[in-house]
Amino acid sequence: MTRELRTFLTFQGGAATAALDLYRDVFDDFELIAIEHYGHADSGPEGTVKVAKFRVANSEFSCADSPITHEWGFTPGVSLWIECDDEGELQRLFDRLSDGGRVYMPLDNYGFSTRFGWVGDRFGVTWQLNVQ
């Protein structure tokens, strides 16, 4: 029986800590549930994130700094959908997450939503932001 489904974000080059700091700063409800760092005798660089578990918008995520260099990064083909309570929150998240990142779809009315935007943060994680 499947017990749990959680999104796992794999960072490279020690970026997990910076990403967690960004998400803590951007999302009012961010909660760091647990974090473990690589130690001196571990396979990853000492002090980088071995595994972390955090919560945003009532959803749990895990992340880590991969000790292996991968030929891939994040792709906008898979993104995180955030439903905002109001346009002020939508604008704030859009501005903060796109800072140093990339705008895929600027905030606008696209027919399926009166106010929607799609951004990639500076780490390459993509976020679809919406207000109903």
Task: Provide a brief overview of the structure.
By secondary structure, the protein is an alpha/beta fold.
Map the helices and strands.
Elements: E1 7-11, H1 15-26, E2 31-37, E3 49-56, E4 59-65, E5 80-84, H2 87-98, E6 102-108, E7 115-120, E8 126-131
Parallel strand pairs: 1-4, 5-8
Antiparallel strand pairs: 2-3, 3-4, 6-7, 7-8
Describe this structure in words.
- The protein has 132 residues and is an alpha/beta fold.
- It has helices at residues 15-26, 87-98; strands at residues 7-11, 31-37, 49-56, 59-65, 80-84, 102-108, 115-120, 126-131.
- 18% of the residues lie in helices and 39% in strands.
- A hairpin with a 6-residue loop joins β6 and β7 (115-120).
- The chain is elongated and about 55 Å long.
- The termini are far apart.
Keywords, separated by commas or semicolons:
single chain; 132 residues; alpha/beta; elongated
Please summarize the sheet with the most strands.
4 strands, mixed
Q: Order of helices and strands, N to C?
A: EHEEEEHEEE
Summarize model confidence as the mean pLDDT. 95
Instruction: Name the structural class.
Output: alpha/beta
Give the percentage of residues in beta strands: 35-45%
Radius of gyration: 16 Å
Instruction: Bin the helical content.
Output: 10-25%
Query: What is the first-to-last residue Cα distance?
Result: 35 Å
DSSP E strands, number = 8
Widest beta sheet: strand line-up = 1-4-3-2
Low-confidence stretches: none
- Work out the helix count: 2
- Backbone shape: elongated
